[in-house]
Amino acid sequence: MPALAFVWGLAEGTAFFLLPDTLLTATALGSFRKALRQSGWALAGALVAGAVMFSFARRDPDGACAFVLRVPFVRSGMVDRADADFKQKGALAVLRGPARGIPYKVYAVRAPGNAVDVVPFLLASVPARLLRFLLMTAGAAGVSRLLGPSRRRAAWTLWAVLWVLGYGQYWAGVGP
Length: 176
Hints:
There is one protein chain. By secondary structure, this protein is mainly alpha-helical. Helix content is 76%, strand content 0%. Helix 3 runs antiparallel to helix 8. The N and C termini lie far apart (35 Å).
């Protein structure tokens, strides 16, 4: 499973549109420790993705931006908001992404054009990615523990319903 978490973090940081949190929370229903380890691997994959997308944008800014805009549910308004965030916060702009629903890959391809160097970008990426991973994982583990082993099926049902509703609400709100 660590390899899957790494690959999922890498994929979501480049061209995939489902968050690694989906896997991490599923794992947390059974083992908080395993989910914590997976969070580290998902972070590693995300950082590799961030470096790859940053490098792509440094070589071909228009091509990198066009690539990201072809990912489902990524919109040009997100690019504009990321640019505004970089102008206000520099490398720390990436910390705003999770709260704004702007994918990490958007920040990765916009950082070079906003005079953000790769090292500060990747350093800011650690809390931007890891905090959400850990909060989601801890929440799922807490719900699982609260429901107890006798209600494992209820925990899985709740997990599925929350992810379907969460993704549905996000995707419906993204718009054209």
